[in-house]
Amino acid sequence: TQLLEQSPQFLSIQEGENLTVYCNSSSVFSSLQWYRQEPGEGPVLLVTVVTGGEVKKLKRLTFQFGDARKDSSLHITAAQPGDTGLYLCAGRNYGGSQGNLIFGKGTKLSVKP
Amino acid sequence: NAGVTQTPKFRVLKTGQSMTLLCAQDMNHEYMYWYRQDPGMGLRLIHYSVGEGTTAKGEVPDGYNVSRLKKQNFLLGLESAAPSQTSVYFCASSYTKTGTEAFFGQGTRLTVV
């Protein structure tokens, strides 16, 4: 059972558009992370959110952690072709071992010029 | 800076054959993970280790065994490969502190025929 549900699974947009990707769970997480993966490579960390309600910005990317620490969102403003890739959320939940890092299924983003 | 190194990068096995995937990290990380990635399924945790000499089951452990005899190495074994184990396998490592980044290897593409 996948504890982290991501939506949408696929997203194809034009350059300059805005988009939001969601990561939801019924479990509480001590922290949530967002990774980006390019074809043929391993995922690379974008951001970690730890505090409920936390908002972090990374240039055109805005990440938010839900107040109850069960969900997170990634918003991209004015998307560019270089943003194309697979976006994955990951977390360690309170109930399990602290070493157990699980991932959502990912959102495959394609930004067309 | 080697980071996380996986060997081999590609392998084709016949059904019933065995093999071992090697993961090595040079960052003195306590935690190490093995994931498999299949289309539309994101990253699924096979086994993980919170320290030398310890291992634990993840979401999809059946058909795999692991060993962590040395802190820097995490081995994933397939005793009798099956076509369902055709996948891309990723190893990752991280420090123990909640929210710290997981660093990934470049992956091993395994095909079982």
Q: Mind explaining what this structure looks like?
A:
- The complex is a heterodimer of chains A (113) and B (113).
- In chain A, strand 9 and strand 10 (102-103) form a beta hairpin.
- Chain A has no helices and 11 strands.
- Chain A is globular.
- In chain A, strands 2, 4, 5, 9, 10 and 11 form a 6-stranded mixed beta sheet that branches. In chain A, strands 1-3-8-7-6 form a 5-stranded antiparallel beta sheet, with no helix packed on it.
- Chain A is mainly beta.
- Chain A has strands at residues 5-7, 10-14, 19-24, 29-37, 44-49, 55-58, 61-65, 71-76, 85-93, 102-103, 107-112.
- Chain B is mainly β and 113 residues long.
- Chain B is built from no helices and 11 strands.
- Chain B has strands spanning 4-7, 10-13, 19-25, 31-37, 43-49, 56-57, 65-67, 73-78, 87-94, 103-104, 108-112.
- In chain B, strands 2, 4, 5, 6, 9, 10 and 11 form a 7-stranded mixed beta sheet that branches. Chain B has a 4-stranded antiparallel beta sheet with strand order 1-3-8-7, with no helix packed on it.
- At the A-B interface, strand 4, strand 5, strand 9 and strand 10 of A face strand 4, strand 5 and strand 9 of B.
Which features would summarize this protein structure in a list?
heterodimer; A: 113 residues; mainly beta; six-stranded mixed β-sheet; five-stranded antiparallel β-sheet; 11 strands; 0% helix; 54% strand; B: 113 residues; seven-stranded mixed β-sheet; four-stranded antiparallel β-sheet
Tell me about the largest β-sheet of chain B. 7 strands, mixed
User: What's the overall geometry of chain B?
Assistant: globular
Alpha-carbon distance between the two ends of chain B: 35 Å
The CA-CA distance between the termini of chain A, in Å, is 37 Å
Tell me the quaternary state.
heterodimer
Beta-strand portion of chain A reads over 45%
Number of E-type strands of chain B: 11
Taking the sheet with the most strands of chain A, its summary is:
6 strands, mixed
Structural class from helices and strands of chain B? mainly beta
Average pLDDT level of chain B: 93
Any idea what the shape of chain A is?
globular
Helical percentage of chain A: under 10%
Number of helices of chain A: 0
**What is the ordering of alpha helices and beta strands of chain A?**
EEEEEEEEEEE
Range of helix content of chain B: under 10%
Q: Kindly report the average pLDDT value of chain A.
A: 91
Would you identify the regions of chain A where 5 or more consecutive residues have pLDDT less than 50? Answer: none
